[in-house]
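Q: My labmate handed me this sequence with no annotations at all. I'd like to see what the chain might look like in three dimensions before we decide whether it's worth expressing. Could you predict it?
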Amino acid sequence: MGKQAASEALTSIPALLARNAKKFGAKPAYREKEFGIWQSWTWLEASEEIRAIALGLLTLGAERGDHVAIVGRNRPALYWSMVAAQMVGAVPVPLYQDAVAEEMGYVLEHCGARFVFCEDQEQVDKVIEIQDKVHHIEHVIYVEPRGLRKYDHSHLHWIKDVQAEGRAAQQRFAKELEERTNALGYDDTCVMLYTSGTTGRPKGVVLSNRNIIESSKNSAAFDKLTADEEVLAYLPMAWVGDFIFSIGQAYWTGFCVNCPESADTVMADLREIGPTYYFAPPRVFETQLTGVMIRMEDASRVKKWLFDTFMNHARKVGPQILDGKPVGLWDRFKYWLGDIVIYGPLKNMLGLSRVRVGYTAGEAIGPEIFEFYRSLGINLKQLYGQTEASVFITLQPDGEVRSDTVGVPGPGVEIRIDEKGEVFYRSPGVFVEYYKNPESTASTKDAEGWVATGDAGFIEEGTGHLRIIDRAKDVGKMADGRLFAPKYVENKLKFFPNILEAVVFGNGREFCTAFINIDLTAVGNWAERNNIAYASYQELAAHPKVYEMIQSHVEEVNRSVAQDEMLSGCQIHRFLILHKELDADDGEMTRTRKVRRRIIEEKYADLINALYDGSKEIYTETEVTYEDGRKGKISATLEIRDVAVVGEGKVAAQ
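A: Here is what I predict for the chain of 654 residues:
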């Protein structure tokens, strides 16, 4: 009973901070690499830094219910700003740091932010650029002062000055701060996060303290997370996953959050930290695997033979050993030898040697990629979640990890499938509402708290595991009635290191076709080894030998897809290689790298028509956005290739 009462008193992130400062005072709470050196703050030191920011916000006139925007890469000071905003009764609203000024402007206008915390000059410039349209921003606070000395500082403040003002105003505002912090309840807003907006404008998802803390508590118990975990905070702060891992679970368990020096040093910093609890979207695992495969192509014949021999053995027995299943003595010995020669050094190079629990989510991961990491002995699992669920809907229990399911309902989560096959869930993590959008709230969440995921799936009989087929709106029928599930095929294509992105078409059509984006790093490396000269992405993508290589990958995927009777109709008959990478700045992807299918179908309608009308090539002009925000056009004549298809089963989807 005493424990339960204590748990009930921890009804806000600031309350958890106060507990951690007492309970874990001398333990590291945050680390940040700056100028090549790791700086460290204990929970006690972090609580003092956060309190100073909160007092500083009071000196600037922060009111209860204000929205405080935070934009920049993962830095302790920006995490502290979020918690400081909560302490004064305000609502933190993290934004994607790579968003262009127009995207930022929409979110800042929609939430009515009075305060914006920026990491550096680049983010400050974006805010200044939109201030003539967004009039309610009163104060901009920056972390990195470089380049900002000559700016007008009447409403622009260095965070250290804000903290100094706060400390100086201790006598005036200490009581007010205490009252506001103590008044925070379980159903008060903890954070507002904007969805990636695959089908329209981003929506502001309001999550309460109850949503975040219950989800963090339940998921931490599920994977036995403790105060001794180490995590690397490198994913966008505007993404719900980062908020749960780096704020929710970190504050619930008291573990340490490590912030890399920059986006360019993430992999090096990952190796130095050696996290015990690690999350990455499939794209990160795909990129790491691509790097490994490129290095193996350049390795000596002996090294390549050793790698191939031991990896073949790892794929055979690694996952069973990881799950504690019976494996023969000789196979165990061979795996142990492989761990000394290949797996151990490889895990160390990837920075994953100490991972006790690893997760991937956001998109479906290719089964081959998933099995590769598990075969090395890395406890990589899948979870299924949404911003609206405070992340967790399903999780994979240890010993029940498979590439074709996303696990069982998390603690406190209920799941049901409607008659159309759409997945619905209900849990303590279910969001409060979409900010200023009652219509969307009502269409997503019903009166009983059930939320429509927008995904099609089914629950396996016997195991209770959930299998996701695709986005409900993307699953369709071919012209002959067979099932069309594009994501299933796209993930198989993206297993190949040479393919960065794929978009499959075929709903209502006689056959499937695809756009392919090559991976410039992998294909560029291959081109150099094969003495193929190229001057640009566009030139390399159009090279006949690149087309031959991609065609062989597509035909291999077709052979794999043909083995699945239900989805054999999704084999690709024709494809083209796009002349540019799909880009969030061009609206073709979200900031979390999800393809915006409807926009691509509209923007590249001429290319899709050419894939279906028998054309062998197509001339096209495409508008692109450059890094400085300018727009321009690129033109190209794209080749269209026919692909061998395996004798398709004639089973219509029921």
